[in-house]
């Protein structure tokens, strides 16, 4: 059995229209590389990366989903277990931005109420083709009280930061659940609960 | 079996005036020879495009290829192009709200096209084939001054902008941004088109002709190997019509696996969920340890086999291996039951690693199947199928 090499496990999910760059964002984060030659994601894909936050080793289990309507039944089943969700649109594609509202509704319907969300306006390196201004992105995020960032998987802008901030928000919330307790204490509490349902070292 | 003997075996079956499909299936199951146009011809037969009676081939091919030409003429049109001189039909203009208007259809089609366009540009990126120009471009399209090229319909055009800076009285500095990056899939010059443009047209016509289903992501991965096999046929008489022939073979194949692509049919007898459950059931009956491990880890078949089954494994292996696997799948008497045995074999072959691994490493392993001789997998699948696990 593999030895447990992390303190906490966070499950994250990437959603958004087809072609906005979800797979590229994930690939940049997990492998620090960029390629335009990705095949389209069918169903659901998966990556792992361990980061360190506030002295804790956090294993991020990130699910990458297919954007097209057909795959929604298969992908919405992952919403429930997700602790953080990244909603991605493409700043050069108006439609993908308009659909953010639709994706938010999806989250409301299928995800845990306290899931941490973040909106990403990807492809910000392609400023000459931009059709969605940064202000509009900020506005919609503000309306829904969600974090927002413009990113570029290609130029490696804000990718690492986005994942760290989302993870940090989850960590903060996890710690905040028990008022007055510090993070360490909560973790001790969490371990038995997760291992009683299914052996946690398998994840 | 020696390669020559194998070729001979195929020649024997194929030279008959009336080809025995059963006999063809029997030998194709073990793989169709890569050269001498064998695969493309056998697939045409296995996918019920060519009839068993050879005497009918010419007339069938002529009829189908003409029909395809007609599809292009009728369905790839620019609104207004058929209007008489100056007679703008009342009510048909870009702002018409009549859903039947040519322009409304045009805009609706472009929505579908947008998705197809994204996906055909992402088809088999590890080989250069689809970016190469075809020897047989569709004349009507490529000589239309770009008017009928499908991807130009969904190209987002941007107006050039410049930064204008005023400095004091009357001095204006205009900064024009540097030159744009070159496109990865640059459109070909007038008179030429790349293979991915041909595939785009096939998928667009399929979506137009099957409006209830439309285009679903992944269909590109189904047409890809078929078109590749047909468009690299050494026989020029067949290669010339790769587009029309692969369109009909794709349509026939889709009629059998259509349910995988329709969300509302997920739970039906031939739907994807039923297939995944069958896989799980067979796994349980053939390797209880792995099945238990998956249960324990809550590792659901949706995580890996959804893509395996929907795409007939086309994203899991390099193209030559996919072609080889499809020889077998197309020869399956109970199409596509054997596919499930292949999937089951893929899992069992990895059993030692899977029994050792944790949830994450197991998902990773299954989603990125390690390179191996596909013959090993197919042999294992045959072995499993003989156990009658269901």
TrEMBL record, chain A:
Primary subcellular site in the record, as a coarse category: membrane
Molecular function as annotated in GO: GTP binding; GTPase activity
Cellular location(s): Endomembrane system
Matching InterPro entries: P-loop_NTPase, Small_GTP-bd, Small_GTPase, Small_GTPase_Rab
CC per GO annotation: cytoplasm; endomembrane system
Domain of life: Eukaryota
Membrane topology: Lipid-anchor
Pfam families: Ras (PF00071)
Assigned keywords, A-Z: GTP-binding, Lipoprotein, Membrane, Nucleotide-binding, Prenylation
Keyword Coiled coil belongs to the record: no
Family matches, as NCBIfam families: small_GTP
Family: Belongs to the small GTPase superfamily. Rab family.
Protein name as it appears in the record: Ras-related protein Rab-10
Source organism of the structure: Dendroctonus ponderosae
From TrEMBL, chain B:
PANTHER family: TBC1 DOMAIN FAMILY MEMBER 13, TBC1 DOMAIN FAMILY MEMBER GTPASE-ACTIVATING PROTEIN
Subcellular location, principal: cytoplasm
An example Gene Ontology CC term for this record: cytoplasm
Record SUPFAM superfamilies: Ypt/Rab-GAP domain of gyp1p
Keywords recorded for this protein, A-Z: Cytoplasm, GTPase activation, Membrane
Alphabetized GO MF terms: GTPase activator activity
GO biological process: intracellular protein transport
Oligomeric and partner information: Interacts with RAB1A and RAB10; in a GTP-dependent manner.
Residue ranges occupied by any Rab-GAP TBC domain in the UniProt entry: 33-333
Biological function: Acts as a GTPase-activating protein for RAB35. Together with RAB35 may be involved in regulation of insulin-induced glucose transporter SLC2A4/GLUT4 translocation to the plasma membrane in adipocytes.
Subcellular location(s) per record: Cytoplasm; Membrane
Name of the protein described by the UniProt record: TBC1 domain family member 13
Superkingdom of the organism of origin: Eukaryota
């Amino acid at each position: 059995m593999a030895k447990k090499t992390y303190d906490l496990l966070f499950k994250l999910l990437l959603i958004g229209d087809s072609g906005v760059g979800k797979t590229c964002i994930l690939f940049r984060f997990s492998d620090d590389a960029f390629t335009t030659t990705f095949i389209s994601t069918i169903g659901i894909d998966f990556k792992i990366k361990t980061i360190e936050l506030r002295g804790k080793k956090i294993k991020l289990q990130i699910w990458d989903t297919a954007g097209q309507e057909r795959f929604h039944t298969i992908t919405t089943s992952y919403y429930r277990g997700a602790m953080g969700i990244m909603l991605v649109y493409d700043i050069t594609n108006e439609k993908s931005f308009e659909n953010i509202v639709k994706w938010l509704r999806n989250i409301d319907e299928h995800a845990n109420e306290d899931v941490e969300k973040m909106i990403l306006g990807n492809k910000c390196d392609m400023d000459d083709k931009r059709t969605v201004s940064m202000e509009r992105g900020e506005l919609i995020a503000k309306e829904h009280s969600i974090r927002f960032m413009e990113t570029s998987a290609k130029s490696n802008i804000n990718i690492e930061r986005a994942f760290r901030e989302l993870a940090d928000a989850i960590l903060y919330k996890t710690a905040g659940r028990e008022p007055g307790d510090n993070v360490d204490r909560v973790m001790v509490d969490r371990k038995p609960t997760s291992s009683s349902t299914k052996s946690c070292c398998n994840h | 079996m020696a390669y020559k003997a194998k070729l001979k075996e195929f020649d024997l079956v194929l030279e008959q005036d009336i080809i025995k499909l059963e006999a063809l299936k029997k030998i194709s199951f073990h793989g169709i020879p890569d050269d001498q146009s064998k695969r493309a011809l056998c697939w045409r037969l296995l996918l019920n495009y060519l009839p068993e009676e050879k005497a009918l081939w010419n007339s069938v091919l002529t009829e189908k290829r003409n029909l395809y030409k007609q599809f292009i003429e009728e369905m790839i049109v620019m609104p207004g192009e058929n209007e008489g001189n100056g007679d703008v039909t009342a009510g048909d203009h870009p702002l018409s709200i009549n859903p039947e208007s040519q322009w409304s259809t045009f805009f609706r089609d472009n929505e579908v096209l947008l998705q197809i366009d994204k996906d055909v540009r992402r088809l088999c990126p590890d080989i250069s084939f689809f970016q190469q120009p075809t020897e047989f471009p569709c004349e009507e399209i490529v000589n239309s001054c770009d008017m009928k090229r499908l991807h130009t319909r969904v190209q987002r055009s941007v107006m050039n902008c410049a930064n204008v800076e005023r400095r004091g009285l009357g001095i204006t500095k205009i900064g024009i941004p540097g030159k744009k990056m070159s496109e990865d899939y640059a459109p070909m010059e007038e008179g030429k088109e790349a293979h991915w443009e041909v595939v785009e047209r096939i998928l667009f016509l399929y979506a137009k002709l099957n409006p209830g289903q439309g285009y679903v992501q992944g269909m590109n991965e189904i047409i890809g190997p078929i078109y590749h096999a047909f468009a690299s046929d050494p026989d020029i008489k067949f290669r010339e019509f790769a587009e029309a022939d692969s369109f009909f073979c794709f349509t026939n194949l889709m009629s059998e696996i259509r349910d995988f692509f329709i969300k509302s049919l997920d739970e039906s007898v031939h739907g994807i969920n039923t297939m995944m459950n069958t896989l799980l059931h067979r796994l349980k009956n053939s390797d209880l340890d792995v099945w238990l491990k998956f249960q324990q880890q809550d590792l659901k078949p949706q995580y890996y086999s959804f893509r395996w089954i929907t795409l007939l494994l086309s994203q899991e292996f390099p193209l030559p291996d996919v072609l080889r696997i499809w020889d077998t799948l197309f020869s399956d008497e109970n199409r596509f039951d054997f596919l499930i045995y292949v999937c089951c074999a893929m899992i069992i072959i990895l059993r030692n690693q899977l029994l050792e691994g944790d949830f994450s490493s197991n998902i990773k392993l299954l989603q990125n199947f390690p390179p191996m001789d596909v013959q090993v997998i197919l042999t294992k699948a045959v072995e499993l199928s003989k156990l009658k696990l269901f």
